[in-house]
Design goal:
The structure holds 2 protein chains of 2 kinds.
Chain A (H helix, E strand, L loop, with lengths): L3 E4 L2 E4 L5 E7 L6 E7 L6 E7 L5 E2 L8 E7 L2 E6 L8 E8 L7 E3 L3 E5 L1
Parallel strand pairs in A: 2-11
Antiparallel strand pairs in A: 1-3, 3-8, 4-5, 4-9, 5-6, 7-8, 9-10, 9-11
Chain B lengths: L8 E5 L4 E6 L7 E8 L6 E6 L4 E2 L4 E4 L5 E6 L8 E9 L13 E6 L1
Parallel strand pairs in B: 1-9
Antiparallel strand pairs in B: 2-7, 3-4, 3-8, 5-6, 6-7, 8-9
Classes of the chains: A mainly beta, B mainly beta.
Amino acid sequence: GAVVSQHPSRVICKSGTSVKIECRSLDFQATTMFWYRQFPKQSLMLMATSNEGSKATYEQGVEKDKFLINHASLTLSTLTVTSAHPEDSSFYICSARDPSVTDTQYFGPGTRLTVL
Amino acid sequence: DAKTTQPNSMESNEEEPVHLPCNHSTISGTDYIHWYRQLPSQGPEYVIHGLTSNVNNRMASLAIAEDRKSSTLILHRATLRDAAVYYCILRDLGGSQGNLIFGKGTKLSVKP
């Protein structure tokens, strides 16, 4: 199946700093990518939908100024957590839909963010 | 997207078949039934999806009830590597965004 990568796999940062997470579709072009967040022992929560070349669509309750999403190319989307705080510590997972395969969405391996 | 209901957890013995149920009584005619699984500390992995007919692939089989109000994911021979949280998700064929909304899923434990 298609491969989606994320970088870094884990990051530890100090409170108040910004962290960028990259998501790449390695063998297909993804016009749409998605960002999820998962807290311990909970399910994935959709944060935003990212369309190449346009602004992201954020889910209710997700601050667009805090979680900056850029989808500059068909294979790369980035999520920047600005002024991170300990409550932002979570598992961030990106996903991309392969338009050549009917209705299938592939997920990255996730990025573990710890804010001290 | 319509809601699904799954048992919180299930147990299985290694090398035995596993049947993971999912109820989706409010499914619409254009909703696809998707199954994903998530191993600990990893992103979800696509397992299988279908619309009306039963589906088979190298990982699993998907049995869909005739009225489409329920479905069952079948792992033919469980291995220890199949221990994961399994999510049953409905997505509208006509949904332009393509996003998947996750419920709580079923945590499958496999005993050696």
